[in-house]
């Protein structure tokens, strides 16, 4: 016997395997290789079967708990509540606990309808998978920059993501830029200022194009005037001639825009708007402020739409 097998304790191996190991060094090499390959394939099939058996038993073990005695509707509500405090990819882990949990997760599309920055940074494939699995539930997107991530690059699929969802499923968009982000707003939102662009389900729009150290650590509180006048802002904004969602955003209730460079007439005002928060760079002067007549016309137009 050759020393190749000296480090193996094969006393517990099957008889068929031991015979082949003991025959190492046989003169008929071709025949020996053929027998080895055949035995390896047999063991691989057996390993696959054993793996499936172990997986099934683990699933049964996980399912045999007090929690699993709850009705599916109750478990779904628990999952939804807990998912608010985790990234949306965590729900994929829940789906692997047992077959019952997987069935509950896959039956509730809203589990996959809240995409946050960490998910978007992981991969474009994961992002698009989550979007597909959430169909046709309304869709929410949160991007608060690369801060706190292992990557600081701007996710290239963000523009495509916004373009693909804003016009029929997007319900909420929170889009804040951090120190590390390098992008041009007009490119990211390229489809949003097309003359036919509209977002019928959009209820919340928050775009923060502000770069100040410690800003996000403060919980997103708006900076005071003194901080704004420091000039620590990057000029990556919309053109003031752009109009966001010119086709309308009838469900929009909450809009916060910080240092995006849009003129008043370019904002997506609608009949449902109840909260408006606008901040602009002091260097623009009154370029983004409405005139008295523009402000009055906006109010009158909103009243007309409501009526």
TrEMBL record:
Q: Which Pfam families has this protein been placed in? A: F-box-like
Q: Which residues form the F-box domain?
A: 64-115
Domain of life of the organism encoding this protein? Eukaryota
Alphabetized Gene3D superfamilies for the sequence:
1.20.1280.50
Tell me which InterPro entries the record gives.
Answer: F-box-like_dom_sf, F-box_dom
Q: Which SUPFAM superfamilies match?
A: F-box domain
The name on file for this protein is: F-box domain-containing protein
Organism encoding this protein? Coprinellus micaceus (Glistening ink-cap mushroom)
């Amino acid at each position: 016997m050759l020393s190749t097998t000296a480090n193996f304790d094969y006393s517990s191996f099957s008889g068929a395997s031991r015979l082949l190991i003991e025959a190492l060094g046989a003169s008929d090499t071709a025949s020996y290789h053929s027998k080895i390959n055949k035995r390896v394939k047999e063991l691989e099939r057996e390993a696959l079967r054993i793996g499936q058996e172990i997986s099934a038993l683990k699933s049964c073990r996980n399912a045999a708990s007090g929690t699993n005695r709850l009705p599916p509707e109750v478990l779904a509500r628990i999952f939804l509540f807990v998912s608010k405090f985790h990234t949306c990819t965590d729900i994929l882990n829940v789906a692997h606990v047992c077959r019952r949990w997987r069935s509950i997760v896959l039956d509730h599309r809203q589990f996959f309808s809240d995409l946050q920055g960490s998910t978007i940074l992981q991969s474009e494939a994961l992002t698009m998978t989550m979007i597909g699995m959430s169909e046709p539930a309304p869709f929410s997107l949160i991007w608060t920059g690369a801060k706190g991530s292992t990557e600081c690059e701007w996710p290239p699929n963000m523009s495509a993501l916004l373009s693909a969802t804003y016009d029929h499923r997007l319900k909420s968009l929170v889009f804040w830029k951090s120190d590390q982000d390098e992008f041009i707003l007009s490119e990211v939102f390229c489809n949003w200022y097309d003359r036919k662009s509209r977002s019928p389900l959009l209820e919340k729009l928050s775009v923060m194009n502000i770069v100040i150290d410690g800003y996000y650590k403060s919980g997103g509180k708006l900076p005071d005037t003194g901080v704004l006048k420091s000039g620590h802002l990057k000029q990556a904004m919309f053109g003031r001639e752009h109009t966001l969602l010119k086709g309308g955003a009838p469900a929009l209730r909450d809009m916060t825009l910080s240092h995006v460079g849009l003129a008043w007439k370019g904002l997506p005002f609608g009949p449902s708007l109840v909260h408006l928060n606008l901040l602009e760079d002091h260097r623009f002067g009154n370029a983004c402020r409405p005139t008295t007549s523009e402000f009055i016309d906006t109010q009158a137009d909103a009243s007309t739409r409501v009526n």
